[in-house]
UniProtKB/TrEMBL annotation:
Organism, scientific name: Leeuwenhoekiella aequorea
Keywords: ATP-binding, Nucleotide-binding
Family designation: Belongs to the ABC transporter superfamily. Ycf16 family.
Pfam families membership: ABC_tran
UniProt xrefs under InterPro entries: AAA+_ATPase, ABC_transporter-like_ATP-bd, FeS-cluster_ATPase_SufC, P-loop_NTPase
Transmembrane region(s): none
Domain of life from the UniProt record: Bacteria
Gene3D superfamilies, sorted: P-loop containing nucleotide triphosphate hydrolases
All copies of domain ABC transporter, residue ranges: 2-246
GO molecular function, a single term: ATP binding
Protein name: Fe-S cluster assembly ATP-binding protein
Amino acid sequence: MLEIKNLSAGIEGKDILKGINLKVNAGEVHAIMGPNGSGKSTLSSVIAGKEEYEVSAGDVLFEDESILDLDAEVRAHKGVFLSFQYPVEIPGVSVTNFIKTAINQIRKAKGLEDMPASDMLKMIKEKSELLEIDRKFLSRSLNEGFSGGEKKRNEIFQMAMLEPKLAILDETDSGLDIDALRIVSNGVNKLRSKDNAVIVITHYQRLLDYIVPDFVHVLVDGKIVKSGGKELALELEEKGYDWVKAELAAG
Ligand code: ADP
Ligand code: MG
Ligand code: MG
């Protein structure tokens, strides 16, 4: 599904990613871990197509096609979802109405008619029940006064409704309390299937106690320096990132 080849990228002349190689197949969950400032968020931004980052070498293929020249919006339409793509606060626009509009905009861009209201309602009901999201939440104004956990709930609901092929969840280093951890991990676990793939980016080993990844990659200073199975997350929890750095230094 996703193939990253020798990717180097940076911002304002600063090199951040320094030759990343990564393959993600449908049905897989990959975790990317690493110390603060190692380039995790930059990697997710480059995959999703945020314009401020400059790619200096390499390529990103999605379903065998380079996506580097495509706008973030077009990538999203192809099925690439980045968490917090829609962090805006919109008073008076509910969680539900926002996602309805987003879905119909994507359909319009693909030359399709609006989703029939009855189908939309059915989908909202299905997904909200699956994720145990109550109706009251769905009628709240988008992001207005949301707690950390509620922001996560909204994000996972958006992901469930948009049904992306590739979801990238960049769990930033703050605000992941137990409630938020549970919401994100339950959501991912319920939404994972043989047809989609998930990349979970986190500084925290703890998240991976809840979302069990198929592969774990450690990013240090813009390079993937170690890859392994889920046991690598446990090893990191025990020994910390300094262990990986020391191993690297020792060659
Ligand atoms: P992580 O998500 O692993 O904490 P980031 O990708 O956010 O790392 O950042 C990697 C490095 O790039 C850091 O040194 C950070 O300061 C720098 N960086 C990221 N975004 C910007 C930006 N917009 N302007 C300048 N430097 C940036
Ligand atoms: Mg950071
Ligand atoms: Mg980050």
